Request: fold
Amino acid sequence: MSRYRPFIQAALCCVVLAVSIITLANQQQSRTQPLVPSSSEDQSRYAEVATTSGEMPAAMASSTMSINVPILVYHIVRPAYPDDSRAVRALALTPETFDAQMMYLARAGYHVISFAALEDYFKRHIALPEKPVILSFDDGWKDQFTYAFPLLVKNKYPATFFIFTNSIGRHGFISWEDLQIMQSAGMTIGSHSLSHPYLTRVATSTLWGEINDSKRILEQHLGVSVNEFAYPFGNYNPAIIAIVKKAGYRSARGDYESGEQSPDRLYQLSALNAPTTTALFEKKFPITGYVMRQAVGTILQTTTTSSE
Reply:
């Protein structure tokens, strides 16, 4: 064993050095994203949908069968503009940063799954891969189709796009043709209501239309079942949850700062806004000892083989 000690020490140094180089490269990349001019019209369209809500639902107790499955929420993926507001910068990622995050997930040992896989895990006891994570996009901005979608295809990752149907085809938003292209490429389309209101402020007589009619419209145009719902602004209450269930959705995504999911919260799935820099993303999703051990094992195996 002692004769392999120099090789083991060298292998460990190589792994540490490689991780350090990757981290520094990604940090440098996130600091040097290109800036391109924008028009006031383009800037203002992001104000059409507010991004935060002060009306957060009270946390409800989870069952003992909880599992850690982070659900990332993306809103804006596009080049940075010099006149971006603070609110936009809090949610916006450049395509380069988004791509770096997607590649990092694979390096860190994460496996991107769908909402359907999480539903099947709880309802049908179908196993999930190690370190699962779900990718989702809100509101249906055209930028998501233009910049994020090609990078998802490149990295072979599924994602769910939550669309509020009144926006489809409007200036700055995804079209029906875009949705069909994304669906054909393996993306899932979910409902985000008809008009993106604060559902707790909507009259009871209107709630059914916001929740059920958006589902029906998407299904008629896309020819598939729409099984996932995302509450606009993460805003809901027990009455709204009951309507979502009655409409036939299999799950619904809320807006908590947690990655814990449980079967009694399938209609209140916990989510978090995706970090907007590579450094923050890597801090949120660290490379674990398991991945490091795999890397060391590979290096040791190669070193031992070459020394024989």
